[in-house]
Amino acid sequence: MNFLRKRFNKGLRKEVLEFSSSLKFDKRLYKYDIDGSIAHAKMLGKCGIISKRESCRIVKGLEEIHQEIENGKLKLRNAEDIHMAIEARLIQKIGSPGKKLHTARSRNDQVVLDFRMFLRDAVGEIIKLLRNLQEVILGVARKNLSVIMPGYTHLQHAQPVLFSHHIMSYFFMLNRDAQRLRDCLKRINVMPLGACALAGTSLPIDRKYVARLLGFSSVSENSIDTVSDRDFAIETLGHLVLIMVHLSRLSEELILWSSSEFNFIEIDESFCTGSSIMPQKKNPDIPELIRGKAGRVFGDLATLTMTMKGLPLSYNRDMQEDKEPVFDAVDTVKECLKIYISLLKNIKVNKDKMYLAANDGFSVATDLTDYLVKKGVPFRQAYSIVAQIVMHCIKNGKRIDELSLNEFRSFCVKFKADVYKNLNVKFSIESKKSVGGTATIRG
């Protein structure tokens, strides 16, 4: 806008405008910018800073601009940012009253207002998607409630567990993700408008009124902090990173489980692709892509933290770089959650293959240790005895449950005939009744 150049003798070079313009990415904030401007105009009219008639004309003009953008009639171009594009169109539509809209505000507080409103909605949408994915995981667990699989540590067989217990671990990861985001909303939902450039204003504004109109639970308390702060965005990105950590770990397991070596699950063909030269291939593309996209979101967090590091107070143009990493992370997380909701609904569990892997003859070794502990043998001694039994089985090519009672007693006289019921994987699972354990019914 020409009035921004009144202090200068020269106009802005075309290449400088193109380089410095944020319109190509911040135009997606138009709804929030218009909503914020409408609330601001209503407040200016209520407080007598502009006339009620001017306030109404501004509001009507902004509502019309919203419709123009929605209908594709207004092409946003040749502006420094979405805020100036909308203001310029408003002045073009209604004339002099439009020039009063920016009274008692700055782009510094206007930008952060739009950003907070965007994130407030985005976080709400992600929380809903997390809940939907949790419901799908719960459905998968219920459908496969009695399926037994090997549990792993170090990607080595450890102890038998229920598949439903394993998949539900992701339910609780996502539950924490949603809790963190809900808590983060408290710090996002703080109304910044009225901080102006950095010092506030001498005009008699009513910030709490604007907060009520826009649904904010509180107003910011320090004008310098208000326009300088992007903690709320960095915090949100941190939580989105954790979501992607969890989705990436799930992706890794689905990739492994769908391989020929595991064959624990089948991913529906509609989520897989083939090879350009190998006709037999069925590739788990979606989990692989999500595993890869996790790195993008991690990078988005690094981008914003590095942008903010070392900036003097208050606003600096560097902070224009705050939106793209947040937009990218929000869009990526939403896409990944949506596709996983569909993918997991259509997953097939190969319960026989899982059971065969769990019943490998050694996964009940810990249960054998617990058996001796219940007979009064100190744990470390019991551990040593069972380790020797395992070595004996490996040397003689036997499973633990194939040993005779005399063989067991040659290692420890505490072994009785009841030892064999402890060597069944189903018994092993149902014995884990401690709170949070893998048993069907827990204490």
TrEMBL record:
Location of the protein in the cell: Cytoplasm
Gene Ontology MF annotations: argininosuccinate lyase activity
SUPFAM superfamilies: L-aspartase-like
Pfam families reported in the protein's UniProt record: ASL_C2 (PF14698), Lyase_1 (PF00206)
Keyword Amino-acid biosynthesis carried by entry: yes
HAMAP family: Arg_succ_lyase (MF_00006)
Protein name: Argininosuccinate lyase
Gene that this sequence comes from: argH
